[in-house]
Amino acid sequence: MEQKGIGSTDSGVAIVKKFWKGKGIDEDELNIYDGSGLSPLNRVTTHAQVEILKYAKTKDWFPYFLQSLPEYNGMTMKSGTISDVKGFCGYHKAKDGKEYIFSFLVNNYSGKTSPLVQKMFKVLDELK
What we know:
The chain is an alpha+beta fold and about 130 residues long. It has 4 helices and 6 strands. It has a domain of about 60 residues. The radius of gyration is 16 Å and the shape is globular.
């Protein structure tokens, strides 16, 4: 890596954590063990996710980033799923013009994902 001189997972994780710490995110909110977005070892708090989305909104590339996000339930957001965890985070502009940046995770749920997603959409509908 250009900043550390070593191309390893550990040096990459250190660089990512240092970057976000410089943006005000506590290192304890970013548990990163590898480069996989699907690893159960990785954890990013909902607060950190919102702070990252807020940061993105300040950048000149934000319109392109926003366009890259899918739409679910009439809202612009990214979904995530791994064993017994479901999440959505993204942006929404309500009918009254109020803008929201949100992260919503449910951990250790029982049952099928589809009924959970419908319940999550019901909660997210309150932002509309």
